[in-house]
Amino acid sequence: MTRTVLGLARAEASLLVRSVLALAGLLAAGLVTWFGIHPVEPLWWHAAWQIGFGQLVLGLAVLVAAQLAAGRARRDGMAGLYASFPATAGIRTLGQLAGIAGAIPASLLLIGAAAVSVHLLGVVGTPSVTVLAGGLLLVIAAGAAGIAIGTRFPHPMAGVLGALALLLSSGTTHLVSGGGIWLVPWEGLQDDLGFLPGPLAGYPPAGAHGAELAGLAVLAGAAALAITVRSARARAGLATAGVLAVTLICLAGAVQLRPVPNLNRLVTDSANPASAQRCTTSSGVRYCLYPGFGSVLPSLEAAVHGVLARVPARLDRPLTVSQVGLTSLDATLTHGYPKRQVSRWNAELRRAPAIASPESAIYFPIWAWPAFGGPLADAHFNLALATADWAVRIPLVTIASSQSGQPSQPCVPVNQAREAIALWLAILAARPPAGELQAGVPAGNGFTAAVVDHKVIPTWSYPGQGAGQVDQIGFSPPQNTEAGYLLARAMTTLPEPKVARVLAAGWVTWLNWHTTDAQLAAALGIKMPGVPRPPLLGTGPIGNGPENPVCT
Amino acid sequence: MTRPARHRLAWLGALPLLAKPITRTMPWLTLISGCLAGLAFLTIMARVADASHAQLSQGTVRLAFLPAVAALAFVLRAPFRPLTQATPVPAWVTPAGHLLLAAPVLVVTGGAYLRIMAHAGNHALAVYPLISQLAGWCAVAVAAAACFERSRYADLGGAIAAPVAFAAIALTWYLPVTAKFLVAPPATAERVAVAWYSVASAALLLTGAALRDRWHRYTRRRSMWRPDRPLEMQA
User: Fold this and answer.
1) Is residue A265 part of a domain?
2) How many CA within 13 A on the CB side of residue B130?
């Protein structure tokens, strides 16, 4: 019997390895994993779980392929012929269950390819074998479920419905709260893993989740065999296995619903980053990063130093560039804790420097710093611009007065020479593509503007500005004007030493917010660029509405 | 003496006789189980949303419609295509008839979904872009099924067409190039409706072309076919 089962398993595994559906599923899984990982600097504690989400896609394909394999005999009207074979239906099902091993190479290939990709992107942290193994178990459980479905329902539609049920259970976790998100086969949208400054024990509860998936695989296998075996003894054994599997699933579920341990430490590390971050000083600037993020430092230094090297005077106040971790807690983290404790933690997080005193340093969130390509170039420009704003004393944030009760509108450095200087410094330091800079200027029928002092001021936004890579949490950074950008662009066409000489000659004057663009243009000997206005927009003052303050 | 040539549309006279077999061979169970599976999912989601004081979003309705779209991919299956191709009635009449029969079932299903959504308190967004999206998805699934039906994978046409259709929908949804036409936002509701109805029209044209295709695909591998050897030696 063992030889028969092994022979069948080898044949079924070989079919599964070559299955068009499984191969297409592997491709789709790779794409899903890539899209989940690549937008930001990969963190292993987040990436490993995202790889598991890719395994879910592979699992969907394996489920359909396994269902087609298990339903093959009845679907083709060959049940009578198969019944005449020496191998019983139970042995064939056992062989098919063992044949799920054919999906293991695809799953391992996905893990390997994803691991290589994140390594090349400069991943932070170390991989959790338990989480990665959980993804593998998910594929096996999906295959076992496909065989259970196919043994009972041979129509291909049943497999597709089974795959959809698996997908929908994992795609609707937004309707589940707290630790319930871990109970579905694989959650991929609701967790806070990408916001954590380091791995957090018990989040996700990988061991218990793996046990749940193993229990589901055993349960599905037992169900598939129970449909096909005839002997009462075998059925009793299968019933016992089923009961044990259900017990394991329930126990694993209960463990996953337990509160996350060490949450207090996470809150402390986020609210008081000085206790966890490692700070280094370079060229008078402090860089504070969470442990393991040292690989980010050179690119930060390059952008910041590129600006400060061109500033003619030393900074009159020290500059700090600091990472931001978790800024608030949600139910996936706090489930199981008393409300009073959660309120205390949230209050503690609101006292974090990035929230309580956002103007004190340049902050960049862990969850938004890109790994490569255009987004990283945008991030470098945004960091350079924030550094330049700091150097010319444009406020990094605008904080609304507590009496107004209105959300703070970003301040606008209207007709201030220091805005053009900051933009010129940032452009020279980061050297972004000219086309991307120009994309911030509205073209055609487009027009973006802010209202300052009842006047419409055309604005300019760097395209990558909204990505939050350099973000003052909950507050608005200054809004640049189109006039300031056009003057800065004109300045980049002049020889750099000439501009540097003019800036050095009157640095204190240029930092004064009353010094105008026209004065700077005159000092440089260039004509102030004109800003086109839409023809239908009048020149007079406009009515009441939310206004932006002037940066002072 | 030669027989008078039959008019090329003479087969239309056989249509009333075909109505009964087409209705009987229609995969009702598959279609209705797909629609009911989505309905059950949506009902559960409506309950969960109600319990958590949340609105049932249009996204959930879209997800609930996927089983019906998957079922539609199995409707075009014509198991005896080589035989029906030899009859005077065109081979595409049966699958086209099945599609026509499936249409009202899908309309009723979609209507029920929208009623559940409205009952769950979601009146905020216009439903016509959603309807155009669901129609577009159905058309894409039908086109994929019709194409696989004419391939060597015809016996698994639905099982392959459904995932392929889902993958195509997911790609159009998440790729920025297509999302700016097909997803609101960034596209406006009118633009989404126009774009999805255009996709549906193109998909139906493709379906028509695939259904009218008369070329028989061999499922045997070409390497096994040796025209220089007698057939009995190749068995």
Assistant:
1) no
2) 21
Enter the tokens of residue A362.
């340049």
Interface of A with B (CB under 8 A): 20-21, 24-25, 28, 35, 60-61, 64, 68, 155-157, 159-161, 163-165, 167-168, 171-172, 175-177
- Secondary element (H or E) of residue A452: strand A449-452
For residues A320 and A378, state if they share a domain.
Answer: yes
d(CA A423, CA B150): 60
The answer to whether position A531 is within a domain reads no
pTM, two decimals, is 0.84
- CA B111, distance to chain mean position in Å, is 18
Are the C-beta atoms of A6 and A101 separated by less than 8 Å?
Answer: no
Mean pLDDT lowest among A130-139, A494-503, B2-11: B2-11
Confidence of residue B135 (pLDDT cuts 50, 70, 90): very high
User: Distance between CA atoms of B30 and A539, rounded to whole angstroms?
Assistant: 66
Residue position matching structure tokens 């750099």: A496
> What is the Cα–Cα distance from A184 to A165, expressed in whole angstroms?
11
The helix/strand/coil state of A389 is: helix
Tell me the mean pLDDT in the region A529-552: 70
Give tens-digit pLDDT for A334-391.
Answer: 999 999 999 999 999 988 888 877 778 888 888 888 888 888 888 888 899 989 998 9
A149 or B149: which leads in pLDDT? A149
Q: Is residue B137's pLDDT more than 90?
A: yes
pLDDT of residue B231: 42
In the prediction, which pLDDT does A540 show?
A: 60
Q: Domain ranges for chain B, please list them.
A: 19-216
Token pair of B150 as six digits: 């004419």
Mutation target for B interface from A57, A67, A164: give the one with most B CBs within 10 A: A164
A247 & A305 share domain: no
Of A24, A64, A157, the CB nearest to B34: A157
- Please determine, for residue A127, whether its predicted confidence score (pLDDT) is greater than 50: yes
How many CB atoms lie under 10 A from the CB of residue A353? Answer: 18
Res. A248: pLDDT tops 90: yes
- How many angstroms separate the CA atoms of A429 and A495, rounded? 15
Asked if B158 and A157 count as a contact pair (C-beta separation under 8 A), the reply is yes
Q: Is residue A495 part of a domain?
A: yes
Determine contact, residues B191/B130, Cβ cutoff 8 Å: no
The domain total for chain A is 2
For residue A274, is it within any domain?
Answer: no
Cα separation, B97 vs B23, whole angstroms: 8
Please judge whether B163 and A155 are an interchain contact, meaning their C-beta atoms are less than 8 angstroms apart: no
Q: How far is A177 from chain B (nearest CA, A)?
A: 9
| Residue whose entry in the numeric block shows the structure tokens 């790729």 | B175
Strands A319-324 and A285-289, sheet pairing:
parallel
| A550 backbone dihedrals φ, ψ, rounded to 5° | -85, 135
Q: What share of chain A has pLDDT > 70, as a percent?
A: 93
DSSP A200: B
Exposed/middle/buried for A339, CB within 10 Å: 0-12, 13-18, 19+? exposed
**Chain A with chain B: Cβ pairs closer than 8 A:** 65
Q: Which helix (H) or strand (E) holds A370?
A: none
Interval A196-210: pLDDT, tens? 999 999 999 999 999
Does B169 contact A at CB distance below 8 Å? no
* Residue A458 and residue A394 in one domain: yes
Same domain assignment for residues A478 and A330: yes
- Specify the pLDDT at position B29: 92
Contact A175 B70 (CB under 8 A): no
The residue-averaged pLDDT of A484-492 equals 91
What's the mean pLDDT when you consider all of chain A?
A: 87
B28 near A CB under 8 A: no
- Which has the higher per-residue pLDDT, A535 or B94? B94
Range(s) of the domain holding residue A380? 288-524
